Amino acid sequence: MGPSILIARNLSKVVPSAEGNLTILQELSLELTQGDSLAIVGASGSGKSTLLGLLAGLDQPSAGSVTLAGHDLGPLDEDQRARVRAEHVGFVFQSFQLLDSLNALENVMLPLELDGRRDAREHARTLLERVGLGKRLSHSPRQLSGGEQQRVAIARAFAAEPDVLFADEPTGNLDSHTGERISDLLFELNKERGTTLVLVTHDERLARRCHRQIRLEAGHMVSPMEP
Ligand SMILES: Nc1ncnc2c1ncn2[C@@H]1O[C@H](COP(=O)(O)OP(=O)(O)O)[C@@H](O)[C@H]1O
Ligand SMILES: [Mg+2]
Fold it and tell me: A single GO molecular function, which one (predicted)?
């Protein structure tokens, strides 16, 4: 076992609602080592995206703690959490969140440039070739299919060489063949770079490819983390 990259302890999320406090995640704990892969499965509304947001430091828990790449996120303010994310985390969302005013190459270059990398263009080109889009560099997102846009999003997420890649239903909008290609890509990058994967998915094949799976039901983990 390698070092822990992501530790969650007794995470809970409670939100106020018109009917009183609503518990959307209850006392959930897990621990991942570098290079691990975790699938989070469960029905719609079971708390998967909420959990992902807490683990990635996008959202704050009502109770419990998250330690990401050695940083306890609890005491950090939003700017400090943003810095931890920038250094350690990549995201792929179901809605690809590419910038329409930039072409594919520029979308992937952006995080590299923000990171001050002088080889941003060359590195972005290499990544896009890696995901099979070497001939789509100057296409705008609108000129790309859903699967192609998702591949650009993955190239962008991997550009900053994150320790942990979080993906919320990365194959959700794709046909099964394209979804399979996206899954292959995630696991190739996981293998080559040791990137830890945390994936929310309804795709059973994708979930089975992960080293670990957890199932949520109404904010509770119903199948345990440890074998
Ligand atoms: N900010 C919020 N305020 C109130 N309710 C929320 C909020 N975020 C999520 N929920 C509720 O929490 C539950 C879990 O949401 P979510 O994590 O998005 O589920 P999933 O991703 O598994 O479909 C849902 O019932 C949702 O309506
Ligand atoms: Mg969701």
Answer: ATP hydrolysis activity
For residue 50, give the ligand 1 atom closest to its CA: 17
The tokens describing 93, both together, are 């969302």
Distance 24 CA to ligand 1 centre (A): 6
Q: Is the CB of 101 under 6 A from ligand 1?
A: no
Q: How far is 223 from 227, CA to CA, in rounded Å?
A: 10
Residues of the chain with pLDDT under 70: 1, 96, 224-227
CA gap 101, 80 in Å, rounded = 29
Per-residue pLDDT at 226? 54
For residues 54-80, b (16+ Cβ closer than 10 Å) or e, as one string?
A: bbbbeeebeebebbbbebebeebeeee
Q: Which atom of ligand 1 is nearest to the CA of 216?
A: 22
Indicate whether residue 24 lines ligand 1 (CB < 6 A): yes
Q: How far is CA 173 from CA 39, 134, 147, in A?
A: 17, 23, 8
Residue 227: per-residue pLDDT? 47
| Containing structural domain, residue 30 | 4-223
Ligand 2 centroid distance, CA of 55 (Å)? 14
Q: Is 49 in the pocket of ligand 1 (CB under 6 A)?
A: yes
CATH of the domain at 136: 3.40.50.300
**What are the helix (H) ranges across 20-173?**
48-55, 78-88, 104-114, 120-130, 146-159
Count the domains in the chain: 1
User: From the alpha carbon of 52, which atom of ligand 1 is closest?
Assistant: 17
In whole angstroms, what is the distance from residue 123 CA to residue 11 CA? 37
